[in-house]
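**Sequence, C-alpha cells**
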Amino acid sequence: MVAGEIPVEFVFESSNVFAIKDIAPQAPTHILIIPKAHYENAAELSFNAPGVLSEMHGAAAKIAVDLNLDGYRSVFNTGASAGQSVFHAHLHILGGRPFAWPPG
C-alpha cells in the first residue's frame, strides 16, 4: 500500500502511522489506521509499542473530527478466531450509521 502497489486512498499520515479508506467497507465510513512498523496484532502493539498504539487512537479521534463523525466504533481484531485475516496490526474506524450491541 505504502509503495503504491495496491491502490488505496490515504486520509491521514504521521511519522509512525497512516490511515486509508478500507477497500471493502463495512459501514459508510470505514478507515484503517496502520502502524508503519510491523506488529502482528494489537497485543504485540500493547506490549512493544504502547506509544504507537496511543498514536493510533489519537489519529482515530482526529479523523473522526475531520470527517464530521458524530460517533464511531474502533475495532482491533486480534487473532484468527477474532476475525483477523491480515496479520499486521490495524485499527478499524467505522462510522456513518448506527451500530448495534453486541457486535456479531
The radius of gyration is 13 Å.
